[in-house]
Amino acid sequence: MIQVAINGYGTIGKRVADAVRQQPDMEVLGVAKTRPNFEAETAIDKGFSLYAAIEDRADQFAEAGLEIAGPVEDLVDGADVVVDATPSGIGAENKSMYEAYDTPALYQGGEDADLVDVSFNARSNFEDATGADHVRVVSCNTTGLSRVIAPLREAYGVEKVRATLVRRGGDPGQTSRGPINDILPNPVTIPSHHGPDVETIFDDLDIDTLGMKVPATLMHMHSLNVTLEEEVDAETVRDLFADESRLFLIPERMDIDGSGKLKEYAMDAGRPRGDIWENCIWEESISTVGTDLYLFQGIHQESDVVPENVDAIRAVLGEADAEESIETTNETMGVGL
Ligand code: NAD
Predict the structure, then answer these.
(1) What's the average model confidence in pLDDT over 209-214?
(2) Which helix (H) or strand (E) element contains residue 308?
(3) Which residues line ligand 1 (CB under 6 A)?
């Protein structure tokens, strides 16, 4: 059994912990938190061993009646791999701790690409992570773009990608984020940082991205234009995408007009936390004009990277190939709407 440590038990960390627990070849050795809050309490309720991420604050857990298994260093020392799901920039500060205990580490998309040996997306470059000590599971947006670009490159060749990312202002729990009543070019400079991030996954990809932020919390929305190397009709592209396990083609009959109904559908379907691990592509939006392909896709920022983290664990430890790992992860989590 692969012993997995999870350092940072917030939006991403708690979801990764639940997903790891469902795997037949993995165990959650423990989760580390900085302070006792509702997430610390649910971690204990779920039976995860709780470790103190910051030694000086360990007493706070006892005061809140929460039992601590030890300092985060013990957790990292005992694990085969650590998933760092701390806020952007903290992963970089933690790197020396993982090195000191010789524990391979996965980081999240908020960290810089140059922190790690490999940036990772299971569908696109699984094997690159084998044996690496420091791997970054790319951001929710980069994951969403990579999952679409990989099959298109393999099937038809991609000349150029242009994407406009309409980004949620914050996650539902992020009460301090915004905008509340505005539409922001964000970042205002063009191209946005997302394109270069996708280029960390693919060699020789030509991609420009533009970003905006809107008063929404549920999902991101991508408006995508891919210039292919050959003319393909829309039906053929739909068939290509239908074979991809982490792409959900929203059928017209479902009458899902936006991210609100998508989230409602996920909750009705009994998804944990209403999570949507798949890219949600509106089937009707898939259109071609000559070599240009267009589509809209919704990306659930809080959850699409979760199966990718599970796959990255197997990739780093060389425990499975891409196909085996993706299949196991999908089956155990229930990925595939
Ligand atoms: P979050 O704030 O919800 O959770 C981070 C957790 O780490 C919190 O519980 C926080 O208390 C804890 N923490 C803070 N400092 C710590 C430390 N020194 N040691 C251990 N734990 C510490 O953040 P998140 O949204 O889960 O983001 C985590 C990472 O995932 C970031 O790199 C982010 O960019 C990336 N990411 C976030 C999203 C998203 O939409 N939320 C999507 C994809 C990737």
Answers:
(1) 98
(2) helix 306-317
(3) 7-13, 32-34, 39, 53, 85-88, 90, 108-111, 139-140, 171, 301-302, 305
- Of the pLDDT bands very low, low, confident and very high (cuts 50, 70, 90), residue 92 is very high
Distance, CA of 172 to chain centre = 17
pLDDT digits (tens, 9 = 90+) for 275-293: 999 999 999 999 999 999 9
Span from the CA of 56 to the centroid of ligand 1 (angstroms)? 20
Report how far residue 43's alpha carbon sits from residue 239's, in angstroms, rounded to the nearest whole number.
41
CATH number, position 242: 3.30.360.10
Place 141 in a pLDDT band, splitting at 50, 70 and 90.
very high
Pick the residue whose CA is nearest to atom 34 on ligand 1. Answer: 110
- Interface predicted TM-score (ipTM) over 0.95: yes
Domain range enclosing 98: 2-138+305-333
Task: Identify whether 280 is a catalytic site residue.
Answer: no
Task: For residue 39, give the ligand 1 atom closest to its CA.
Answer: 9
Are the beta carbons of 169 and 216 closer than 8 angstroms? yes
Q: From CA 303, how far away is CA 275, in angstroms rounded? A: 6
**Separation of 264 CA from ligand 1 center, angstroms?**
25
Tell me which residue has its CA closest to atom 39 in ligand 1. Answer: 302
Domain count within the chain: 2
